[in-house]
Model the fold of this input.
Amino acid sequence: MPRATSNAPTLEDVARVAGVSRATASRAVRGEAFVSPATKEAVEAAIKELGYVPNRMARSLATKQTDTIAVVVSEPDSRLFSDPFFAATIAGVVEVLEPTDKNLTLMVGNLGFRRKFEAYLRSGYADGVVVISHHEDDHLPRLLEAFKIPCAFVGRPIHTPRQDDGFSVGDRFVDTDNIAGGRIATTRLIEAGCTQIATITGPMDMAAAVDRLKGCKQALAEAGLPLLAALPGGFTPEGSQVKTLELLRDHPEVDGIFVASDLMAAGVLGVLHAQDRKVPEQIKVVGFDNAEIAAATVPALTTVTNPGRELARRATMMVLDEVAGAPASGPVIVTPELVVRDSA
Done:
């Protein structure tokens, strides 16, 4: 067979070596289903022989796609690299994108984040967007609605713009049932004999934190118990440590704490140990997420499942389906489960 003489082989070279037309070679490179197995094999052999690399710029012009999925984490980079939930969710996105021709662009929120993200969308750099974390003042649902870009949220958006047909960007999410999770966690404390129950929440500008607190209050109300205190820990161990000291100072009678994330709960356990408050003998603690850290704390943490990797996988598949022309879909809500360990 003739070989290409150029240092940068073209699609025409691939077609010639494979013995097919340029159009057929193009369809095979794109992975279209109606190319015969024999033709696909011949084109793949030609690509390997020539060292051909598809011209993504030309393809982008032809398909109006960039082969890029933007992953948005509207958090400071310190949280991105310290919170195991984000590691799990990003791994889920990568797992879905790996066998495809889509690349991942990670956008992390800091000062000026919304302005930069809006400019990014306006420039048409992404085929779709997976939002892993956002806050009320980001206004990301409204921004994505305005640009009509395929998207999905990991976690329910706290405020959702509505369309006339009743379906909106805010419906395109995959999430754990956080209200049910808050109920499950608090019920565990009640069943373990706690009567003076407090909670350390996430930030109240996030739906997950709002819903977990709501579930906690529902469980207490059904048991006829008051909520001793609700203190915002910001989903960080530092925040939970400060709030635990405050809780022990103002409510020394506390005997049960529902903590809205395992990372925060690890901080709570550290403070309780330093203050010589025995867990679970004096105070019982339940976390949320079932992150790897939950099995490594002392004592090991009773918690509620929040499968970040699977949530992100499903959200990414929703985006890819929409990019491929399927109707937008959602929401998808996963039922959480209790994981009993030593802390409660």
Q: What stands out?
A: The first strand starts at residue 68 and ends at 73. The two ends are 72 Å apart (CA to CA).
